[in-house]
UniProtKB/TrEMBL annotation:
A Pfam family that the UniProt record links to this protein: SIR2
Native species: Periconia macrospinosa
Similarity remark: Belongs to the sirtuin family. Class I subfamily.
Domain Deacetylase sirtuin-type: 9-308
Name assigned to this protein: NAD-dependent deacetylase sirtuin-5
GO terms assigned for molecular function: histone deacetylase activity, NAD-dependent; metal ion binding; NAD+ binding; protein-malonyllysine demalonylase activity; protein-succinyllysine desuccinylase activity
Length: 321
């Protein structure tokens, strides 16, 4: 483990002082995480208009209907995303939040990210609620089967999902694995047609296909996760602080959590690259807006609680902004 200090020039001093006074005395803190947190780990998010994977609109692949119609295509999209997420590394912001979770009992983290980077930064599991599931969870797609599995990092999850090579050579050699990282828009490499026999099967019912354990468009958020969050919020009359990190928090349920925290007295700290990403309820007197890269800002503004952020020598390499 190497100690990595982070440049401090990004944070306005006055803001920093009042924020640190607040976080030092806070006993109930929420953090809401979005794609911006992982941006400096270099992950493509496929969100928003024009998010393309090959020639496919990424949002059209993230539905239960798409999976029923063509599970081979949807699995290839998710296998690619699993692979990219495994190539990425947690950045100093992931480590800073994980350390805050260890230091502050009353800290709860709600993440909209499916990339597995917070778990890989050893964020305590009981203080990390994944609103949209994870690329590394898999579950049975059969309605009547409840099989689910967490933290499956096998890549590719089945051999047929190794990304194919142009010349038909073995896609699982190191050299070919390196090539498949290069270009997501490489239309020269055809997407093979995969049927049920190639795809991961449920080991429990032995009938259903396994599917990625992420929340698709049109699906409900995981009940247990929502219940855990409600329990945490209801546990006390007050919340001191909510940090809104790399997410615009304009849509359900993120926007609602900001409002609930405010209703319990919380001040709001926004950490975002983009000034226009204030919460739906707007900014109020006593809130903070730290504009910039979360990977630089979080280790700095949390320093009074967590000390210098410890980043794995390895993990630090992927964190350049
Ligand atoms: C992940 O899932 C695949 C497909 O079901 C399975 O073969 C593999 O053993 C799993 N990996 C781990 C680490 O459990
Ligand atoms: Zn099953």
């Amino acid at each position: 483990m190497a100690l990595n200090s982070v440049k401090s020039s990004v944070v306005p001093q006055a803001d920093l002082e009042s924020f640190q006074a607040c976080i030092n005395s806070s006993t109930r803190i929420l953090a809401l995480l979005g794609a911006g947190l992982s941006a400096s780990s270099g992950l493509p998010t496929f969100r928003g208009a024009g998010g393309l994977w090959r020639t496919h609109d990424a949002t059209s692949l993230a539905t239960p209907e798409a999976f029923s119609a063509n599970p081979g295509l949807v699995w290839q999209f998710y296998s690619y995303r699993r692979h990219m997420a495994l190539q990425a590394k947690p950045n100093p912001a992931h480590y800073a939040l994980a350390e805050l979770a260890r230091r502050k009992d009353g800290f709860m983290t709600l993440s909209q990210n499916v990339d597995g980077l917070s778990p890989r930064a050893n964020h305590p599991e009981d203080k990390l609620k994944l609103l949209h599931g994870s690329l590394f969870d898999v579950k049975c797609s059969d309605f009547f089967c409840n099989y689910a599995e967490k933290n499956n990092y096998t890549d590719p999850i089945v051999p047929a999902l190794a990304i194919p090579t142009e010349d038909g050579s073995d896609p699982t050699t190191n050299e070919n694995i390196a090539k498949r990282e290069l270009d997501i828009s490489d239309h020269n490499v055809p997407i093979p047609e995969l049927d049920h026999s190639h795809l991961p099967k449920c080991p429990q019912c032995k009938q259903g296909l396994l599917r990625p354990g992420v929340v698709w468009f049109g699906e409900a958020l995981p009940k247990k996760v929502l219940r855990d969050i409600d329990d945490w919020i209801e546990f006390s009359e007050k919340i001191d602080l909510i940090m809104v990190i790399g997410t615009s928090a304009k849509v359900y349920p993120a926007a609602a959590y900001v409002d609930e925290a405010r209703a319990k007295g919380a001040r709001v700290a926004v950490i975002n690259m983009d000034r226009s990403h204030a919460p739906a309820s707007g900014m109020r007197q006593g809130d903070w807006f730290f504009q910039g890269d979360a990977a630089q800002i979080l280790p700095e503004i949390l320093k009074s609680v967590i000390g210098e952020v410890k980043v794995d020598g390895d993990a630090a390499e992927g964190s350049a902004a």
